[in-house]
Amino acid sequence: MAGSGTVFSSALEGMNHVKSESGEMLAKPFLDVCKHLLPVLDKFGAAFAPVKSDIGNNISRLDSKYSSSPSEFNLLYSIVRVEIEAKTAKSSSSCTNALLWLTRAMDYLVELFRNLHDNPDWPMSKACSEAYAKTLKKSHNWLASSSFSVGIKLAPERKKFMDILGGETPELNSDMGKFCTNFSPLLEENHKFLVGFFVFAQRSFVRICIIWFKFCVFNLFAGLCWNGRFESLMHVLNEICL
Protein backbone atom coordinates (compact mmCIF):
# COMPACT_ATOMS: atom_id res chain seq x y z
CA MET A 1 0.00 0.00 0.00
CA ALA A 2 3.02 2.24 -0.18
CA GLY A 3 2.20 5.57 -1.79
CA SER A 4 -1.57 4.95 -1.72
CA GLY A 5 -2.23 5.29 1.99
CA THR A 6 -3.75 2.69 4.30
CA VAL A 7 -7.25 1.41 5.04
CA PHE A 8 -7.46 4.19 7.66
CA SER A 9 -6.37 7.05 5.39
CA SER A 10 -9.85 8.03 4.18
CA ALA A 11 -11.29 7.98 7.70
CA LEU A 12 -8.39 10.05 9.03
CA GLU A 13 -8.84 12.63 6.28
CA GLY A 14 -12.58 12.71 6.93
CA MET A 15 -12.08 13.46 10.62
CA ASN A 16 -10.52 16.79 9.65
CA HIS A 17 -13.92 17.93 8.38
CA VAL A 18 -16.26 16.53 11.05
CA LYS A 19 -16.51 19.76 13.05
CA SER A 20 -18.01 23.07 11.94
CA GLU A 21 -16.11 26.35 12.40
CA SER A 22 -17.93 26.78 15.71
CA GLY A 23 -16.89 23.30 16.85
CA GLU A 24 -20.20 21.49 16.36
CA MET A 25 -20.47 17.96 14.98
CA LEU A 26 -21.55 17.89 11.34
CA ALA A 27 -23.90 15.09 10.28
CA LYS A 28 -22.66 14.10 6.83
CA PRO A 29 -18.89 14.25 7.54
CA PHE A 30 -19.33 12.15 10.69
CA LEU A 31 -21.40 9.55 8.86
CA ASP A 32 -18.88 9.53 6.01
CA VAL A 33 -16.09 8.67 8.46
CA CYS A 34 -18.17 5.75 9.72
CA LYS A 35 -18.83 4.64 6.13
CA HIS A 36 -15.09 4.53 5.45
CA LEU A 37 -14.83 1.79 8.08
CA LEU A 38 -17.31 -0.56 6.40
CA PRO A 39 -14.69 -1.91 3.93
CA VAL A 40 -12.41 -2.58 6.91
CA LEU A 41 -15.14 -4.74 8.45
CA ASP A 42 -15.15 -6.82 5.27
CA LYS A 43 -11.62 -7.90 6.18
CA PHE A 44 -13.03 -9.78 9.18
CA GLY A 45 -14.86 -12.15 6.86
CA ALA A 46 -18.37 -13.59 7.13
CA ALA A 47 -18.12 -13.85 10.93
CA PHE A 48 -18.60 -10.08 11.28
CA ALA A 49 -21.20 -9.72 8.53
CA PRO A 50 -24.03 -9.13 11.07
CA VAL A 51 -21.97 -6.40 12.74
CA LYS A 52 -21.34 -4.69 9.42
CA SER A 53 -25.04 -4.98 8.55
CA ASP A 54 -26.09 -3.42 11.85
CA ILE A 55 -23.62 -0.56 11.47
CA GLY A 56 -24.68 -0.05 7.85
CA ASN A 57 -28.36 0.08 8.79
CA ASN A 58 -27.75 2.68 11.49
CA ILE A 59 -25.70 4.81 9.11
CA SER A 60 -28.44 4.53 6.46
CA ARG A 61 -31.16 5.58 8.91
CA LEU A 62 -29.22 8.68 9.94
CA ASP A 63 -28.15 9.41 6.37
CA SER A 64 -31.76 9.24 5.15
CA LYS A 65 -32.83 11.71 7.82
CA TYR A 66 -30.00 14.06 6.88
CA SER A 67 -30.81 13.77 3.15
CA SER A 68 -34.46 14.61 3.80
CA SER A 69 -33.41 18.15 4.76
CA PRO A 70 -29.64 18.80 4.58
CA SER A 71 -29.92 22.39 5.78
CA GLU A 72 -32.11 21.49 8.77
CA PHE A 73 -29.99 18.49 9.75
CA ASN A 74 -26.57 19.86 8.89
CA LEU A 75 -25.58 19.39 12.54
CA LEU A 76 -25.62 15.80 13.77
CA TYR A 77 -27.36 16.52 17.06
CA SER A 78 -30.14 18.50 15.37
CA ILE A 79 -31.48 15.12 14.23
CA VAL A 80 -31.78 14.03 17.85
CA ARG A 81 -33.24 17.34 19.04
CA VAL A 82 -36.07 17.11 16.51
CA GLU A 83 -36.94 13.64 17.79
CA ILE A 84 -36.80 14.84 21.39
CA GLU A 85 -39.31 17.58 20.58
CA ALA A 86 -41.52 15.05 18.76
CA LYS A 87 -41.16 12.62 21.70
CA THR A 88 -39.97 9.85 19.35
CA ALA A 89 -36.31 9.76 20.40
CA LYS A 90 -36.69 6.73 22.67
CA SER A 91 -38.27 4.59 19.94
CA SER A 92 -36.18 1.60 18.84
CA SER A 93 -36.53 2.79 15.23
CA SER A 94 -35.46 6.38 15.95
CA CYS A 95 -32.37 8.10 14.63
CA THR A 96 -31.42 8.77 18.23
CA ASN A 97 -31.27 5.03 18.84
CA ALA A 98 -29.33 4.60 15.58
CA LEU A 99 -26.74 7.18 16.68
CA LEU A 100 -26.44 5.52 20.09
CA TRP A 101 -25.74 2.06 18.65
CA LEU A 102 -23.56 3.40 15.85
CA THR A 103 -21.41 5.17 18.43
CA ARG A 104 -21.22 2.02 20.55
CA ALA A 105 -20.14 -0.03 17.53
CA MET A 106 -17.48 2.56 16.66
CA ASP A 107 -16.29 2.37 20.29
CA TYR A 108 -15.75 -1.33 19.79
CA LEU A 109 -13.76 -0.87 16.59
CA VAL A 110 -11.59 1.82 18.16
CA GLU A 111 -10.87 -0.41 21.15
CA LEU A 112 -10.15 -3.39 18.91
CA PHE A 113 -7.64 -1.49 16.80
CA ARG A 114 -6.13 0.03 19.92
CA ASN A 115 -5.57 -3.49 21.25
CA LEU A 116 -3.92 -4.55 18.00
CA HIS A 117 -1.78 -1.42 17.93
CA ASP A 118 -0.67 -1.49 21.57
CA ASN A 119 -0.30 -5.27 21.94
CA PRO A 120 1.53 -6.76 18.95
CA ASP A 121 1.75 -10.12 20.71
CA TRP A 122 -2.00 -10.48 21.29
CA PRO A 123 -3.87 -13.00 19.11
CA MET A 124 -6.90 -11.72 17.24
CA SER A 125 -9.32 -13.53 19.55
CA LYS A 126 -7.97 -11.74 22.62
CA ALA A 127 -7.94 -8.34 20.92
CA CYS A 128 -11.58 -8.84 19.90
CA SER A 129 -12.82 -10.25 23.21
CA GLU A 130 -11.07 -7.61 25.33
CA ALA A 131 -12.51 -4.86 23.14
CA TYR A 132 -15.97 -6.38 23.39
CA ALA A 133 -15.78 -6.70 27.19
CA LYS A 134 -14.83 -3.03 27.49
CA THR A 135 -17.46 -1.66 25.11
CA LEU A 136 -20.48 -3.46 23.66
CA LYS A 137 -20.89 -6.25 26.19
CA LYS A 138 -22.36 -4.01 28.89
CA SER A 139 -25.11 -2.93 26.46
CA HIS A 140 -25.94 -6.38 25.03
CA ASN A 141 -28.44 -8.88 26.35
CA TRP A 142 -27.54 -12.55 26.79
CA LEU A 143 -28.54 -13.55 23.26
CA ALA A 144 -26.63 -10.74 21.56
CA SER A 145 -23.61 -11.37 23.75
CA SER A 146 -23.61 -15.09 22.92
CA SER A 147 -23.90 -14.39 19.19
CA PHE A 148 -21.06 -11.89 19.31
CA SER A 149 -18.86 -14.34 21.20
CA VAL A 150 -19.39 -16.89 18.44
CA GLY A 151 -18.41 -14.30 15.82
CA ILE A 152 -15.21 -13.50 17.72
CA LYS A 153 -14.19 -17.16 17.64
CA LEU A 154 -14.59 -17.16 13.86
CA ALA A 155 -12.43 -14.08 13.33
CA PRO A 156 -9.30 -14.63 11.20
CA GLU A 157 -5.90 -15.11 12.80
CA ARG A 158 -3.99 -11.95 13.55
CA LYS A 159 -1.30 -12.35 10.89
CA LYS A 160 -3.85 -13.14 8.20
CA PHE A 161 -6.00 -10.19 9.21
CA MET A 162 -3.08 -7.76 9.33
CA ASP A 163 -1.81 -9.04 5.98
CA ILE A 164 -5.24 -8.34 4.48
CA LEU A 165 -5.08 -4.80 5.88
CA GLY A 166 -1.70 -4.35 4.23
CA GLY A 167 0.73 -5.93 6.66
CA GLU A 168 2.01 -4.68 10.01
CA THR A 169 4.03 -1.92 8.40
CA PRO A 170 5.13 1.25 10.21
CA GLU A 171 2.68 3.24 8.06
CA LEU A 172 -0.28 1.03 8.94
CA ASN A 173 0.58 0.99 12.64
CA SER A 174 0.95 4.76 12.63
CA ASP A 175 -2.42 5.31 10.94
CA MET A 176 -4.07 2.77 13.22
CA GLY A 177 -2.81 4.66 16.26
CA LYS A 178 -3.92 8.02 14.84
CA PHE A 179 -7.34 6.58 14.06
CA CYS A 180 -7.84 5.50 17.69
CA THR A 181 -6.49 8.77 19.09
CA ASN A 182 -8.48 11.06 16.79
CA PHE A 183 -11.80 9.21 16.67
CA SER A 184 -12.20 8.52 20.40
CA PRO A 185 -12.91 12.17 21.39
CA LEU A 186 -15.61 12.44 18.71
CA LEU A 187 -17.34 9.32 19.99
CA GLU A 188 -17.03 10.56 23.57
CA GLU A 189 -18.74 13.78 22.52
CA ASN A 190 -21.64 11.74 21.14
CA HIS A 191 -21.90 9.83 24.40
CA LYS A 192 -21.95 13.02 26.48
CA PHE A 193 -24.72 14.49 24.36
CA LEU A 194 -26.80 11.31 24.42
CA VAL A 195 -26.28 10.75 28.15
CA GLY A 196 -27.44 14.31 28.76
CA PHE A 197 -30.60 13.60 26.79
CA PHE A 198 -31.39 10.33 28.54
CA VAL A 199 -30.68 11.81 31.99
CA PHE A 200 -32.99 14.72 31.17
CA ALA A 201 -35.68 12.31 29.96
CA GLN A 202 -35.32 10.19 33.08
CA ARG A 203 -35.52 13.23 35.37
CA SER A 204 -38.59 14.44 33.51
CA PHE A 205 -40.24 11.06 34.05
CA VAL A 206 -39.39 11.14 37.76
CA ARG A 207 -40.81 14.66 38.08
CA ILE A 208 -44.03 13.51 36.42
CA CYS A 209 -44.27 10.58 38.84
CA ILE A 210 -43.73 12.89 41.83
CA ILE A 211 -46.37 15.34 40.61
CA TRP A 212 -48.80 12.49 40.04
CA PHE A 213 -48.08 11.08 43.49
CA LYS A 214 -48.69 14.47 45.13
CA PHE A 215 -51.89 14.86 43.16
CA CYS A 216 -53.16 11.46 44.32
CA VAL A 217 -52.21 12.15 47.95
CA PHE A 218 -53.88 15.55 47.81
CA ASN A 219 -57.09 14.07 46.48
CA LEU A 220 -56.93 11.27 49.00
CA PHE A 221 -56.40 13.79 51.79
CA ALA A 222 -59.25 15.96 50.54
CA GLY A 223 -61.60 13.00 50.31
CA LEU A 224 -60.77 11.66 53.75
CA CYS A 225 -60.94 15.08 55.35
CA TRP A 226 -64.31 15.65 53.74
CA ASN A 227 -65.57 12.51 55.44
CA GLY A 228 -63.75 13.31 58.69
CA ARG A 229 -61.65 10.12 58.58
CA PHE A 230 -58.29 11.47 59.80
CA GLU A 231 -57.23 8.16 61.32
CA SER A 232 -57.72 6.44 57.96
CA LEU A 233 -55.67 9.16 56.28
CA MET A 234 -52.75 8.70 58.64
CA HIS A 235 -52.89 4.94 58.16
CA VAL A 236 -52.77 5.25 54.37
CA LEU A 237 -49.90 7.75 54.43
CA ASN A 238 -47.98 5.53 56.81
CA GLU A 239 -48.42 2.56 54.44
CA ILE A 240 -47.24 4.65 51.48
CA CYS A 241 -44.10 5.82 53.26
CA LEU A 242 -43.04 2.36 54.42
TrEMBL record:
What is an example of a Pfam family matching this protein? GLTP
Q: From the Swiss-Prot or TrEMBL record, what is one GO molecular function term?
A: ceramide 1-phosphate binding
Kindly state which keywords UniProt assigns to this record, in alphabetical order.
Membrane, Transmembrane, Transmembrane helix, Transport
Kindly list the GO CC terms recorded for this protein: cytosol; membrane
Q: Which InterPro entries match?
A: GLTP_sf, Glycolipid_transfer_prot_dom
Domain named Glycolipid transfer protein is located at 27-166
The transmembrane residues are 205-226
Identification of the protein by name: Glycolipid transfer protein domain-containing protein
Organism the protein comes from: Malus baccata
